[in-house]
Amino acid sequence: MVVGAGVSFGATGEARASWRGLLEHGVETLRALGIWKDEKANANLILIRDAFTSAFELDEVLGRAESIAKALGAPDGRRYANWLDEAIGSLKAETGRTATLDAIKELEQAGALILTTNYDDLLGDAIGLDLSLIHI
User: Fold this and answer.
1) Contacts (Cβ under 8 Å, ≥6 apart) of 96
2) pLDDT for the residue 89
3) Using an 8 Å Cβ cutoff, are 14 and 21 in contact?
4) Measured distance CA(136)–CA(120) in Å, rounded
5) Closest CA relative to residue 65, chosen from 122, 22, 98
6) For residue 25, which of 15, 13, 38, 12 has the smallest C-alpha distance?
7) What does the alpha-carbon distance between residue 77 and residue 80 come to, in Å, rounded to a whole number?
8) Is residue 115 within a helix (H) or strand (E), and if so which, with residue range?
9) What is the mean pLDDT of residues 22-38?
10) Which is more confidently placed, 125 or 95?
11) pLDDT value at position 38?
12) What global pTM score does this model have?
């Protein structure tokens, strides 16, 4: 089973739990830090929002993600790590929104192999594993 951002978004309702929301959060962080001026931030927000239309543009999304990550000092910069921690490290599943996480936990307990593309800890918390210890 592959678990992605849709599970995190569903469990939290937080925009930053989705890829679009995370990218928008990154732009706003760059703006707040004074790394990107308003014009550049606004242009990037337009490109991000356009890329997530019905004609999804993967190359544009990946380009915006790379631009944001580099501007924040990825992959090893402290600012990048701080941003990820602020944006998604604090995500918690809300009461009444855990049905999908609960179902994934049951499948894992029944022997299902689970992969995730997420950076947050929601899945690990739900199934009782410290996913930060697993590196692929």
Assistant:
1) none
2) 86
3) yes
4) 16
5) 22
6) 15
7) 5
8) strand 115-116
9) 98
10) 95
11) 98
12) 0.85
CA distance 65 to 43: 14
Q: Is the pLDDT of residue 97 over 60?
A: yes
In the block, tokens 């996480």 appear at 101
pLDDT at residue 51 in the model: 96
**Could you give the C-alpha distances from 18 to 15, 21, 38, 108, 110, in angstroms and in order?**
6, 5, 23, 23, 28
C-alpha–C-alpha distance, residues 60 and 80, integer Å:
21
- What are the angstrom distances between the C-alpha of 114 and each of 17, 25, 117, 127, 130? 19, 27, 10, 10, 13
For residue 129, what pLDDT is reported? 72
Select from 118, 121, 93, 134 the least CA-distant residue to 22: 118
- Distance (Å, whole) CA 63 – CA 114: 28
Phi, psi for 112 (deg, rounded to 5): -70, 140
Q: Which pLDDT score is estimated for 134?
A: 53
Taking alpha carbons only, the member of 131, 108, 109 closest to residue 120 is 131
What is the rounded CA–CA span in Å between residue 65 and residue 125? 26
Residue located via tokens 């994934």: 104
